[in-house]
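Possible race condition, two jobs.
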Amino acid sequence: MINVDGSLFIQMVNFVVLIWALNFVLYRPIRGILAQRREKVEGLEQGIATYEQDLSEKEKALQAGIKQAREKGQKEKEELEEQAREQERQMMEQINEKARSDMAEIRERVGREVESVRKSLQPQVDQFADQISEKILGRAL
């Protein structure tokens, strides 16, 4: 059984001294290390949050830049296509004009040649008519 005598008080003082010594030697340094670790983890978490926010902002800026570049590229493409259509139209007009002038020249030349052939064959028309008549009738006229 437990006797309540002077040794109980000595044991109580011994217990308090032991708690104080453990607190001073063991618990306080461990709590300090845990507090430092907690502060370090919180600092890292804040750093991570900051980096994530920066990353998000940079991604948004990148997306905006890509969108702007695409729009600019699309506008430039449309401008180039419009310039190409205009050049095509001008070239077609030039080709059509050249074709018209060539056709007019060819028609004029063909007309002159037809007229010259007609003039060269006119004296022989009577002779050809007589020959055709002879062939058709089978006798001389």
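Job #2 (started ~2 s after job #1):
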Amino acid sequence: MSERAARPTRADYVAWRTATTRWRDDDAYGHLNNATYYELFDTAVNAHLYEETGVDVRALAQIGVVAETSCRYFREIGFPEPIEMGMVVDKVGTSSIVYRIGLFQGESDEAAAEGRFVHVYVDNEHGAGNRPVVPMPDVVRAAVEPLLR
């Protein structure tokens, strides 16, 4: 029998941002829709990259595409309280970055959910369908290395 990883806490994350929940974010069961968790992970990562690099990351010669995502759910969250998103980087490779994003709502020190989000950098010069894996830009590396834990 394998041991389940410990539930993450606020101390596990380095960078923070807050998202406002919307009425439409809840599903028919009255909690945050699963797809919204993934939107929050994407927003946390890309907002950090925009702010820390100071450039439009979509216009770089090498762009990060999502190669893997997953989510562990620990408790329900939803509208109307804001969601705090903590982020940490587990690995920075030559062409990839592995992020973890914890979602917190209310006063709890324990994450309500944690996402794994992997960017792989590809050539952006020739468009979709013809994007070989390439080393990530130095400006991106500089923005994410401080998040390594």
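Residues 34-53 form the longest helix (20 residues).
Logs attached separately.
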